[in-house]
Amino acid sequence: MDKLEKPLEAWREELSDQQFHVCRLGGTERAFTGEYYATKTPGIYHCACCDAPLFDSDAKYDSGSGWPSYFQPVDDQAIASKDDFSHGMHRIEVRCVRCDAHLGHVFPDGPAPTGLRYCINSVALKLKPKAE
């Protein structure tokens, strides 16, 4: 997939205020408020900014954190990670490889088979339900 680059002002015009704050400025939505934290609809979660496929509902689980959580992305090449030292702590930030949108963070306390918990902001995602 080709890299998508746009000026910040172009993103500001295309995204909602909350999407812009989270995806382009690295913000976080409040726990238990996002559209997808409790969703059980089968489908693929795509990047809200560029439509790249990121997570399959088969990898989604209830972590109790208040954000949608997944134990793996649809493809290891879909997600980029980097160290995040904000808020006085060390975390691993995850971003969409295609458009560099901030998605959330990954933690080493998830279930098998990966042991990872991708804790993702709902506003950074767009669910495309699977055809029945």
UniProtKB/TrEMBL annotation:
Q: What is its EC number?
A: 1.8.4.12
TM helices/strands, residue ranges: none
Against PROSITE patterns, the record matches this protein to: MSRB
Q: Which Gene3D superfamilies match?
A: Peptide methionine sulfoxide reductase
Q: Cite the binding residues for Zn(2+).
A: C47, C50, C96, C99
Q: Does the keyword Cell membrane apply?
A: no
Q: Which GO terms describe its cellular component?
A: cytoplasm
User: What is catalyzed by this enzyme?
Assistant: L-methionyl-[protein] + [thioredoxin]-disulfide + H2O = L-methionyl-(R)-S-oxide-[protein] + [thioredoxin]-dithiol
> Which UniProt keywords are present, listed alphabetically?
Metal-binding, Oxidoreductase, Zinc
User: Where along the chain is the active site annotated?
Assistant: C119
> What is the protein name for this chain?
Peptide methionine sulfoxide reductase MsrB
Task: Provide the taxonomic classification.
Answer: Bacteria, Pseudomonadati, Pseudomonadota, Gammaproteobacteria, Pseudomonadales
